[in-house]
Fold each of these.
Amino acid sequence: MPASVRDTIFALSSGPPPAAIGVVRISGPRAGGALKALTGKIPAARKATLAQIRGTDGEIIDQALALWFPGPHSETGEDVAELQLHGGRAVIAAVLSALSALEGLRPAEAGEFTRRAFENGKLDLTGVEGLADLVMAETDGQRRQAFRQLTGALRQRAESWRSQLIQALALIEARIDFSDEADVPEGLIAPALQIARRLEGEIAAALADEGRGERLREGLVVAIAGPPNAGKSTLLNRFARREAAIVSPHVGTTRDVIEVHLDLAGLPVTLLDTAGIRETDDPVELEGVRRARARAGAADVVLWVVDASNSADAPVLSTSLRQFVSTADRPAPRVLVVRNKIDLLNSGKRRNELRHQVYRSGELSVQTKEALTKTVNKRLKKRSEFEFNLNELEFVLSALSGEGFDALLAKIQEYAGDYLAGAESALITRARHRQALADALGAVRRALARDLATKEDLLAEELRIAARALERLLGRVDVEDILEVIFRDFCIGK
Ligand code: GDP
């Protein structure tokens, strides 16, 4: 047991004050003593009790609900006390300071309560990750996925696979132990291989999810890009329906990448507003442009916004767009061209734009659409190998008035739906899970592929490797390196 576990820790576990209620938690061997020091008593286990909270000088700080959870039947597995205080700044500060003054107590580090729960076997590592995701979940889909993980969706499968591997190992080891004896049943290896074959199918099936579970954690990433002043920030604000980005008439104000998380009918979408992409010598802007390119290059969808009222933006599918989305080592994101500011067009031009919109929504004949696509691609050919299918990829709207916006929103929602289909039920939600299961599968396959049936010790070794990969997944072995990474994302008091 690490030395830190012997300390008694405390923290404000609810949100920042002021709030109606502030919850302070205390965990460790001195939790009971601390409760007694502050309230004068230890209430009955797991029963909310009204108590007066006193500071070190004996003055009453607050009247609060006190709860007592003796270990091991507590969240952390240790003795835990909880105070539900009035959530004012001064109340919380006074209570935390009274706790600090007690011998053997110290403020908790980020994630330390959960870490103790893990160390005391209350949660496995996939459960810890599910808990972290549940706290961070922004949409219903993410919440359901996180809750499944917290309550053991992956853990139960991994434990079952592991125990079957142990069973297969036992058969093989029995065969090894008795190999000198003439009448040892030869039939020990066959059932072991049968178990391995079944596991191979099951683990491979869990891995064949095309990364859906990981995607639900991230969401569909949509980058908004295009020339300066085209209306990118205004469009982002229309999505977010709040002032998330600074909308300004001056060129080049959006230097950094602004991120807005959206919940589109339960589907998570991350919108990125990128710096105005243009040639510049200003080192600060240059850095903004570089970051914008990198971030949007990794997006699933790029909304390329142009000012339909500005003839300088007219070569819509310009070289800068090509540079922007052409990434050597990964599939290019989908590009939707957004012709913005149609409210500024005179009625003739506007009719023209909206007529184009009809093309795009598929009401004209296929030949016409193909002809249009061909023309654009011919123009593009001169500059690149980049081919566009213009059908349904261009939107005409006014970010300012909202006209035409719903069609774009519906398209993105449709993309998000396709992209995240089946994600909630996927077992794997992190790259770490995928790696561990791939390791296990690799070992099982090696055991089955080579003719190991006569080399029992090699066969046993592969199955042991597979079992160990599953133990790593659950956090039973090789845990130190990953713990730091996982708990880094936790907040204080969790
Ligand atoms: P960005 O540089 O691409 O982020 O552009 P902004 O969103 O900052 O917009 C630049 C200017 O264009 C601002 O003055 C906006 O109010 C204006 N603007 C943006 N969208 C529209 C629109 O649809 N119609 C009109 N009339 N003005 C717009």
Note: Residues 228-234, 247-249, 254, 276, 340-341, 343-344, 398-400 surround guanosine-5'-diphosphate (CB under 6 Å).
Amino acid sequence: MASIFTRIINGELPCYKVAEDENFFAFLDINPIAEGHTLVVPKKEVDYLFDLEDEVLAGLTSFAKKIAHAIDESLGTLRTGIIVEGLEVPHAHIHLIPIYFEGQPVSLGRKTEVSEDRMKELVTLISKAVKK
Ligand code: AMP
């Protein structure tokens, strides 16, 4: 059965889409731990990040870098951190976590409330800042 992320990529399920290219896709995490928390995933469905082919892993990292710079530029972060866990959704992904202040808790256990209107604003801001 296709993963929930494959169904998002195929347009079968809604998402706040940040960007995509031929091989990779970025969208806001629906249960963010910080405003602008974004997931980057390969379109090819593989469960474990470190089972990705070398060139796919390298491509995903470059794509994540581009999205992280867009987050930094559009949301005025100190920087963007990354978390890789993958215990909930069996489709390799990197969490990009905007860090706004020193000491900000960065843990996937700490969800924050973000309204639908704010999610729409965030996705517009970040997606406009993604360099082609
Ligand atoms: P993990 O597999 O533990 O790295 O975490 C999976 C992440 O996917 C969690 O942070 C979820 O909030 C997120 N997530 C699950 N379903 C969706 C969805 N439909 N849209 C956006 N994010 C999702």
Note: Residues 24 and 59 are 8 Å apart (CA to CA).
